[in-house]
Task: inverse folding
């Protein structure tokens, strides 16, 4: 099977998930990639929905490192995980640009998710920003295992969202084709700036 065939096969099987929505499709792709016992990153934990999803994927033998700059988000995620009795998470109140400070020597990442934008029902001025998002993605790529996946759910309807979207697309379009496959999925008939998905897979050498 060619290096692209595996991702294509996963995507074809995921068509029904995509029709359910972009976030659901992002979870489908991670589910196909991340295995029990591995390390996964939630770069923007917010209310903890993606953190909880990753926790279940890696299981008790695995580990999730979840970032958010806001105390409220860390609090919400901690509460969500406690309700579900999950303790295989390291919760970090810091920007995802500092991700390498929290990776142990020799560790590799199998999957990561970025859910861009602002914390729902919170301060809409605290948003992810293009430059730091791209820097964090580049740093995670350094630790991503071959075949590993970074998914980015791009919400861009809020103030600052268009700038971030443009920076992310511009920079990720320049990633070396030999090293990674970068794909974009979106609905073309939805109104009001629907979110879309970017998936980055590290190619096998
Ligand atoms: C759309 S929300 C994430 C939703 C979350 N994934 C969930 O499941 O509820 C985006 C989050 O990114 C956080 N954020 C903004 N800039 C960040 C940064 N540089 N590093 C980490 N988190 C950041 C915000 O505080 C906000 O909570």
Result:
């Amino acid at each position: 099977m060619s290096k692209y065939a595996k991702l294509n096969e996963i995507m074809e099987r995921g068509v029904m998930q995509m029709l359910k929505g972009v976030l659901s499709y992002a979870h489908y792709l991670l589910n196909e990639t991340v295995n029990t016992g591995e390390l996964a990153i939630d770069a923007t934990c917010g209310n903890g929905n993606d953190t909880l999803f990753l926790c279940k994927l890696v299981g008790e033998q695995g580990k999730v490192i979840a970032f958010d700059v806001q105390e409220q988000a860390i609090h919400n995620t901690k509460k969500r995980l406690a309700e579900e009795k999950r303790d295989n998470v390291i919760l970090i109140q810091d920007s995802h640009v500092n991700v390498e400070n929290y990776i142990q020597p020799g560790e590799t990442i199998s999957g990561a998710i970025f859910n861009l934008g602002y914390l729902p029902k919170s301060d809409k001025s605290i948003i992810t920003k293009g430059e730091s998002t791209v820097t964090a993605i580049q740093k995670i790529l350094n630790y991503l295992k071959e075949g590993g996946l970074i998914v980015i759910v791009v919400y861009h309807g809020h103030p600052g969202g268009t700038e971030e979207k443009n920076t992310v697309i511009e920079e990720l379009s320049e990633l070396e084709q030999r090293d990674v496959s970068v794909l974009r999925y979106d609905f073309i008939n939805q109104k009001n700036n629907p979110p879309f998905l970017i998936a980055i897979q590290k190619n096998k050498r």
User: Anything to note?
Assistant: Residues 182 and 200 are 5 Å apart (CA to CA). The chain is about 40% helix and 20% strand. The chain has a mean pLDDT of 93.
